[in-house]
Design a protein that fits this description.
By secondary structure, this protein is α/β, with parallel strands linked by helices. It is 23% helix and 24% strand. It is built from nine helices and 15 strands. The strands form three sheets. Strands 3, 4, 5, 6, 7, 14 and 15 form a seven-stranded mixed beta sheet that branches. It binds NADPH dihydro-nicotinamide-adenine-dinucleotide phosphate (NDP).
């Protein structure tokens, strides 16, 4: 899947094209590279940021037009020059949106040791979004039992987990999402105490006052913009906001203004941004926590799987209109 040109507003399916090219299915002699067969690719909102030429930070580098896009995925090693990986190993980490990818520096790949859970989970609950929810909630939010937690984009890859972690901790949790189907899922499948469709609320401040009459202790911020502005009016004293992402702003240039910033002062609110990459060295701690919860059915996970690499562009752009219900995955091959 090739990015044709840089994107300036909403990404469209035809900003990308699927091209067939021959490649040698072997690692160049003497190199440390691995050749992988990609099985599942992950659609993540940050990929839109990489479709812009100039990034305002050094967290990522932009994609190169007319080259395959990259992202997280689950793959199988089919040839290896690295002593760390052998043929047949399953891995997850950064790969390209291709059937096969030559990964020159495999140090960023994680070996998959547990296959009693769906392999696709390593794009979501057991991969980057799972760690985002886990470290973002437990470390950045400093949660306490009984606190009132609000999660936006709550049915997505990260949000559905944040809500469930907060419930495990004994918090009162409300989520927002963009359709009735998603709101129902939040309440019936993920155990949120309540949920609302933000697209049906003309006045987000009033909606939040309805769901949080005593205010919000913790806001897990996934969307930014108008929602953040309304949340600032509803934070309790010494509340915390984990600034995970602001998807409502990724296609806007310039971004929307936020007007209620003084409420950070009035409420002595702590807002802390974080990047999941800073926690990657703690992957095994995260797995030790999450795997038993999955096996015992104490945490559930919903995925939205598009079949075939050709469906990748449409699946990826669907994130920005909320077409995905749960974690958006692209299944390239099953084994
Ligand atoms: P999701 O699976 O939640 O998919 C994106 C969802 O965002 C859509 O389904 C849609 O849900 C919602 N959305 C899209 N456009 C808008 C909009 N204009 N306003 C409000 N909601 C919108 O994505 P993820 O769970 O993977 O990511 C959630 C957030 O976490 C993103 O902001 C992402 O960038 C961030 N993130 C940050 C990381 C970090 O290290 N800090 C790591 C990983 C993710 P709906 O139908 O409910 O509107």
């Amino acid at each position: 899947v090739i990015l044709r040109e840089y994107v300036s507003e909403f990404p469209r399916e035809d900003d990308m094209e699927v091209r067939r090219e021959e490649m040698k299915l072997e690692v160049p002699p003497g190199s440390n590279a691995v050749l992988v067969k990609n099985l599942y690719l992950s659609c993540d909102p940050y990929m839109r940021l990489l479709m812009s030429p100039a990034l305002p930070n050094s967290l990522f580098s932009s994609y190169t037009p007319r080259s395959p896009i990259t992202g997280f995925g689950v793959a199988k090693i089919v040839d290896s020059g690295s002593p760390e990986f052998k043929v047949g190993d399953l891995v997850w980490g950064t790969t390209a949106w291709e059937e096969y990818s030559l990964i020159a520096d495999p140090r960023g790949l994680f070996k998959i040791d547990h296959t009693d859970v769906p392999l696709s989970y390593y794009t979501g609950i057991l991969g980057m979004p799972g760690m985002t929810a886990y470290f973002g909630f437990y470390e950045v939010c400093s949660p306490k039992k009984g606190e009132h937690v609000f999660v936006s984009a709550a049915s997505g890859a990260v949000g559905q987990l944040v809500g469930q972690f907060a419930k495990l901790m004994g918090c009162h949790v409300v989520g927002s999402a963009g359709s009735k189907e998603k709101v129902d899922l939040l309440k019936t499948k993920f155990g949120f105490d309540d949920a609302f469709n933000y697209k049906e609320e003309h006045d987000l401040n009033a909606a939040l006052k309805r769901y949080f009459p005593e205010g919000i202790d913790i806001y897990f911020e996934n969307v930014g913009g108008k929602m953040l502005d309304a949340v600032l009016l509803n934070m309790r004293v010494r509340g915390r906001i984990a600034a995970c992402g602001m998807i409502s702003q990724y296609n806007r240039n310039p971004p929307e203004g936020v007007t209620n910033l003084m409420h950070i002062v009035y409420g002595r609110v702590r807002i802390e941004g974080f990047a999941v990459f800073d926690y990657f060295d703690q992957y095994s701690k995260f797995l030790d926590f999450v795997l038993p919860h999955i096996r015992e059915g104490k945490i559930v996970y919903i995925e939205d799987v598009a079949e075939g690499l050709e469906k990748g562009p449409s699946a990826l752009v669907g994130l920005f209109s909320g077409r995905n219900v749960g974690k958006q995955v692209v299944a390239v091959a099953r084994e």
